[in-house]
Design a protein that fits this description.
mainly alpha; 16 helices; Acyl_transf_3_dom
Length: about 350
């Protein structure tokens, strides 16, 4: 891979200049996460490795900002990420104290999630998903350094996370505890983040098609083979097998970000276009609260007879609770992004004032 030279043009079809293909990928990823946590079908992790895709998208968007103003890019991403977490902490921490009378110094990670925030077993449905925000925050903080390295040695920068991952999974290095979790998660998805850099610079688009035709199947096959030969109690679930996840997700992300389809069809489908916009505008809120909604869907569903519709009945209850969370907490994302707060943002975002800057 050569060092990146210039950024290619994007397929932009929305009035606010957003790449709607990337928005569509993120919307699909969010929906896949919800369905997986609802039904825990291991095969879904192969059909669409949502977390790898989300980190790939994050890397692409971060690169677009870092190449212009690294310091401002980091501040902007952190500003957008943390308020929604703070709101969740403001709700859950008092509830944990009321229920368990148990607190920890790790509560500090609810303010700045450099490691997974403290949570008692009672709120595990909420805290079990926070690793993503921890990993995302570290990627954001390290992106200026990673971008510097990528501009000089793109291939080496892409491979470093996979080497670290292999060293922790099959090599001599054992990691554990909160810091170990951070290292493994970053190593698992670091190559996807760097692939996002390659997408943003256009380098992925320029990569030799024959090489990609060999590389992608090799990564997918290696990841799948490792998963099938290292099954956990949940079977061949990529989410529980880091090395398989890292290899398979990278192969998938290289394909997903290589293509650049025309998205005019989405703009012509108003309901679907609005849904994609809503899912992107409320991505953090939905991600943070969806597992809580799923946990509550079963006892609440029993009260209203959701079993009459089978699993789809409980899914409907979960979706309704997620929608409630969006209505109650979603506006925080608008404030964090310096947009005018809206209950259901299905159109182009509006800035909060004439001097607001979108990054």
């Amino acid at each position: 891979m050569r060092a990146p030279q210039s950024r290619t043009s994007e397929t932009l079809t929305h009035a606010n200049g957003r790449d709607r293909y990337l928005d569509l990928l993120r919307a699909i990823a969010i929906l896949r996460v919800i369905v997986f946590h609802m039904f825990t079908f291991a095969w879904l992790s192969f059909v669409f490795p949502a977390m790898g895709v989300m980190f790939g998208l994050g890397g692409s968007l971060m690169a677009a900002s870092v190449m212009r103003a690294p310091g401002r890019a980091v501040r902007s991403r952190v500003r957008r990420l943390l308020p929604a977490l703070w709101v969740m902490g403001a709700v859950l921490i008092p509830l944990m104290w009321w229920h368990d009378q148990e607190l920890s110094v790790e509560l500090a990670f609810w303010l700045v999630p450099l490691a997974e925030p403290f949570g008692t077993e009672w709120v595990e449905p909420a805290t079990t998903v926070l690793w993503y925000l921890v990993t995302y925050l570290w990627f954001v903080l390290l992106s200026p350094v990673a971008w510097w390295a990528y501009r000089r040695r793109p291939l080496a920068t892409l491979l470093v996370p996979l080497v670290v991952l292999a060293a922790t999974q099959v090599g001599p290095f054992e990691v554990g505890g909160l810091a170990g979790d951070v290292v493994v998660n970053m190593a698992t998805f670091g190559a996807c983040w760097v692939a996002g850099f390659a997408h943003r610079t256009g380098q992925l688009r320029r990569l030799n098609g024959v090489l990609l035709a060999f590389l992608v199947p090799a990564l997918l096959a290696a990841g799948a083979a490792w998963a099938l030969t290292h099954e956990t109690d949940e079977g061949a679930n990529l989410n529980e097998i880091p090395l398989a996840q890292g290899l398979y997700s990278l192969g998938f992300v290289l394909v997903a970000l290589r293509v650049a389809p025309s998205m005019g069809w989405l703009a012509r489908n108003r309901p679907l276009d609005g849904t994609v916009t809503l899912l992107n505008s409320r991505a953090v809120t939905i991600y943070l609260w969806h597992n809580v909604a799923i946990a509550l869907a079963f006892p609440l569903g029993d009260l209203i007879g959701a079993w009459n519709l089978g699993d789809l009945g409980y899914l409907g209850v979960a979706v309704a609770l997620i929608a409630l969370a969006v209505l109650v907490f979603g506006w925080v994302e608008d404030v964090a992004a310096r947009r005018r707060p809206a209950l259901l943002p299905v159109g182009p975002p509006r800035t909060a004032g004439r001097h607001a800057v979108r990054t």
